[in-house]
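We treat protein structure as text, and this decision shapes the records that our systems exchange. The tokens are whole numbers drawn from a learned vocabulary of local backbone shapes. One such record is reproduced below, unchanged from the form in which we store it:
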Amino acid sequence: EVSRARSLSQVHGLKNAEDVENYSGFLTVDSQYNSSLFFWFFPSKNKTAPLLLWLQGGPGSSSLFGMFYENGPFVVSEDLNILKREYSWTNAFSMLYIDNPVGAGFSFTLGREGYAENQVDIVKGLYKALQQFFRLFPEQRQNDFYIAGESYAAKYITYLSLLICLQKQKGISNLKESLNLKGVAIGNGFFDPLSYINLSETFFSRGLIDQKQANDLRRGEKKLIKLVQIGQYSKAYGLLMSLIWDVQTFTGYSSLENVLHSHNSEDENNYKNYLNLPEVRKAIHVGKLRFDEPSVMVKYYLQDDFMQSNKVILERLLNFNIKILIYNGNLDLLVPTASQEMLLGSLNWKFSEEFKRAKREIWQNERGFIIGYKKRARNLSFISIRNAGHLVPHDEPLYAFEMIKKFVEN
């Protein structure tokens, strides 16, 4: 039955991709509400290559955004054909993309009760999905396993990784179920909302707003911090959205992902149009489902969760012996590198003092070009990448690929 399910999930008939072995389909995470997560898997030709799970943030963004726009094997052209990506992460790893949580991308649920309202809901579903994935592809179980992603996915990744570590520690996870987790890599991670609520400073120091506008924002930020401190998370979320709207009005920027680009690039929509082509939907086994991204429903159900900190989870995870890479593009206006640096310096874990004292080094290529800056203590590495914003693998594909390879190879 497993081998039949596996062969049914194999993708055939994608133009320009006939030579790429890949599988896609649905993993059921809650039969009561028929909730299913969509996956797309690209096994490496090297049978012992590490397996890397990629999760997108949002919340409610599809991981197929990362796959097509950042690090997967395909890029979609304007005329909706697929081309091969030069620095695809599939060149070094088996890559698994899961639309998470239920409601994101092609993942669906038939009842409102099926939507996740917190990290526990999300991770329960993800963990179930992974167990099903490894039943379909048992040969992947002994390979090193890494979890990567960006932005809001920082929360999913740290929660999921902590669950896997705790299962292992308690010996609950029998060998059939245990996951060979070796490390996590998080780009521009949204761990702790209060650490990034300094829009006034971020935009004023870049010369994008004036003193009066900065003062207006500052007043809102003070209110926002109070709301979070007293646990009024939904109200805080509403206020944050209105502050972001103010920033967009002041600056004329519709996107805050990269200081150099005031609007998202037109080609960001190519992959959405491609995924709604009937022949593509047929090839990847999604039937009549429309691809809708990002999901308004996912955001709606997680607005209470959005403003809650994940710092403690990150600290607990650091105390396990798995490698953690936090990387940031230095042009990001949503999760500024300086804020991330301060957050990491404030963490309380067994080697926090050592991390604070660690020397920051310049990372440059053989021609002397400065790629970025790196800092490391024990199992925590922090890398700031120059000339990249919120979407590092898209903005600096070669260096993002080199970074992830070095991290996995140690």
User: Anything to note?
Assistant: The first helix runs from residue 2 to 9.
